[in-house]
Specification:
This protein has 2 helices and 2 strands; from the N terminus they run ααββ. The protein is elongated, with a radius of gyration of 14 Å.
Amino acid sequence: MVLRRLNNAEYTFTIRDLTGIASLEPAKEFPVDGAAGEGFTNTGNALAMSPSLVTKYLDAGKAIASHAMLLPTAFALRRAPPAANLD
């Protein structure tokens, strides 16, 4: 069975959609996604999941969550966390 995960672009767009903050780039520090033989970066066989990548996912999520505020109508960030590259 192939372990499924979002590729870097999918992860970034998902975080942007969930928070409503278009400037987020949480996957900027992730390694480049590989492309399988057919050239797609979202094929399960091309998306390796290493322990260091899991750590990067967790670090990016923690950085965003530690600075996020839930407002009545949206999310907001108190300040840009350096680990998540939220410039």
